[in-house]
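Q: Give me the 3D complex with S-adenosylmethionine.
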Amino acid sequence: MGQQRLIDGDPAYLREVQYGDGEKLAARIELHERFSRNPVGWHPFLFDLLGLAPGQTVLDVGCGKATVWTKHARAIPEGTKLWLTDFSEGMLDSARDEATMRGVVAQFRVMDAQQLSFPDQSVDVLLAAHMLYHVPDRDAAIAEFRRVLRPGGLAIVATNGKQHLHELFDLVRRFHPDFELDAGATEAFGLENGAEQLSRAFDEVERVDYEDGLDVTDASALVRYIESMDLPADAVAQMDDYVRQRIEQNGVFSISKQAGVFRCK
Ligand SMILES: C[S@@+](CC[C@H](N)C(=O)[O-])C[C@H]1O[C@@H](n2cnc3c(N)ncnc32)[C@H](O)[C@@H]1O
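A: Here is the predicted complex, encoded as structure tokens.
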């Protein structure tokens, strides 16, 4: 099944199906944006941590739809040289469209995290958000992050913890018992084991958690998220019925979140 190939190193599936364009990612971002409890918001939290200053070279690895940038188009300091990169050409097209629409000035490059086409010590701030768990050779990618950063540069690496969306994944497993995505992703690179992996290349690694949860009141939005995981149609139909009933009865479907970042120097 598709979702098992998310974390076991099937780059073609990731590049062409799951992240072939921005559509599936959009359904996930929509759920978080509409129903998250923390009023700060994940993207403002992430953007603040980058601590950007004018004139810096900034590299986003696995940029997806460039959401953190399109949401902060006006706050990007003057003279920032922003590089948005992703290994999916379709995803990068989506990033380019969104960025152009919001007036974000950037360079776009198809690039694999395991081999960054940047000179040594050429980047001031690097962002790798919710992407390292997809990378087959994480040590190589992390070494690349270190290599391209200038001395004193900052890498912000975001991921999830084991409790992230566990009620949603329990629901999926109830109707589709083979489901493995959540455990696999956080086992590969999660809040619990990410610091150890990053410390092989970085001297300082600090974990910063983002407290949050979801109170979902619109069944359709949750079903769109479930559909983005490439599950069998009959299982999705059963989950659709179940979610609608739960929200009709209780008014809400609450889901835990556990996300955060590592600040690496
Ligand atoms: C969950 S999305 C996160 C996107 C974005 N960073 C965000 O936080 O919204 C993961 C992204 O990583 C990209 N990706 C996966 N493996 C990659 C690799 N080896 N090199 C570069 N990008 C990769 C995918 O194409 C996808 O856009």
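A quick observation: The beta strands are 57-61, 81-86, 107-110, 123-129, 149-160, 205-216, 253-264.
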